[in-house]
Amino acid sequence: MTITLYSLAGADVSRPFSPHCWKVVMALHHKGLAFQEKPLPFTGIATVEEGFSKTVPLLKDGAHLVSDSFRIALYLEETYPERPSLFGGEGGKAMARFVEGFSQTVIHPVITRIAVGDIHAMLAPTDQAYFRESREKRLGQTLEQLASSREAHVQDLPGLLTPLRHMLVNQPFIGGQTPLFADYIVFGALQWLRIVSGLVPLPESDPVRGWFESLLDLHDGAGRKVA
Amino acid sequence: MTITLYSLAGADVSRPFSPHCWKVVMALHHKGLAFQEKPLPFTGIATVEEGFSKTVPLLKDGAHLVSDSFRIALYLEETYPERPSLFGGEGGKAMARFVEGFSQTVIHPVITRIAVGDIHAMLAPTDQAYFRESREKRLGQTLEQLASSREAHVQDLPGLLTPLRHMLVNQPFIGGQTPLFADYIVFGALQWLRIVSGLVPLPESDPVRGWFESLLDLHDGAGRKVA
């Protein structure tokens, strides 16, 4: 069976950047599953698989289609139970939803505000029009207005990762001694910022930086290969 | 075997208030274990069990002593594996540490600043002197100065619970369909505020309020009995 992951990229398809797609890339490597990644422009998502999904990641495993990063992770866990677990049991499956809540509502809004101009700059022209209109509407400011508060958000980001920093005193990964999907959730957010803006705004001495670097190295450096 | 939980109270020993002790109270009920709670004043902690611990909760199970709420939960899970799990497996055990990180670094600092004056008011005189000195040093302000920003912190609290609110769209508890120790971690923080300040600063329509109320009802209303 062939696994295809539809993901997201700008004009340069060698640099897929979506945080949600990165979660799935890491999850597929974690399960040791071979896959082909097909990065799409924003405006290309509705054109594949007969418009099955309005968003990526979209996974095609044989004839089976699944969208949404968390649902894909649950699908992989259920379909490939003999391979390394992404959740470490039912409790981990449930609590990964809390980590998702944290990443989506605390980290993503700030990264969006840092990176929105950089994302716009890397898109192909047709995507740029869609992206500017939808993001300016969602955020209530023009891309140019958002640029003025960018540096303040960069400064804020390390502080928002304090819960992770506090946890790292006890264990090296959110998954415990080894990473689980919950790690890939927060990794996806920082990887998105790294690819789009070239920023890892955490000092070398920060344990969160060490955690992120070790995830960049994981799975033969799958994350580090894209910059 | 008799289980004793040393916890924390003010002049009125019928109102133990420590967030960390509440986590353990809920964990003991979760495991269906009978126990005797012995609330101590701050300055009484070092006087029991030959000064085994400088902090509560301190659990005595037969001859075995364990301190620290998370370590106690791990001890209960290991010692009573045939009773309902507090973690739902190894992944849940690890991710509960992330929930702890969130509660300790995002929720506790704000509740401390809201409740510090109320805690001082409910303590016996010997504890008051210790509490005022240690808290004013830690927070860098007098109790009277802290009172001036109290209302602003009350207003901030609902927003800080956004990750939990986001998660509740998918499931009723951090533990999934039923609560686990990770739920009791965040519950402990809000129960602390409820007992000490009489506040549950979340509107009735807030899903986090619904989650908290259901935890107050749990285990025959163990949490609701203290107000």
What does this protein look like?
- Two copies of one chain form a homodimer.
- With 227 residues, chain A is an alpha+beta fold.
- Chain A folds into two domains: 3-79, Glutaredoxin (3-Layer(aba) Sandwich), CATH 3.40.30.10; 90-221, Glutathione S-transferase Yfyf (Class Pi), Chain A, domain 2.
- In chain A, 55% of the residues lie in helices and 8% in strands.
- Chain A has helices spanning 19-30, 69-79, 90-122, 125-139, 143-147, 150-160, 162-167, 181-197, 207-221, and strands at residues 3-8, 36-40, 58-61, 64-67.
- Chain A has a four-stranded mixed β-sheet, with helices on one face.
- In chain A, helix 1 (19-30) links the parallel strand 1 (3-8) and strand 2.
- In chain A, helix 3 packs antiparallel against helix 6.
- The two termini of chain A are 30 Å apart.
- The model of chain A has no long low-confidence stretch (mean pLDDT 97).
- At the A-B interface, helix 3 and helix 7 of A face helix 3 and helix 7 of B.
- Chains A, B: This is Glutathione S-transferase.
- Chains A, B: Pfam families: GST_C_7, GST_N_3.
- Chains A, B: Residues 8-84 form the GST N-terminal domain.
How do you describe this structure in short?
Helix content of chain A is 55%, strand content 8%. By secondary structure, chain A is an alpha+beta fold. Chain A has 2 domains: 3-79, Glutaredoxin; 90-221, Glutathione S-transferase Yfyf (Class Pi), Chain A, domain 2 (Up-down Bundle).
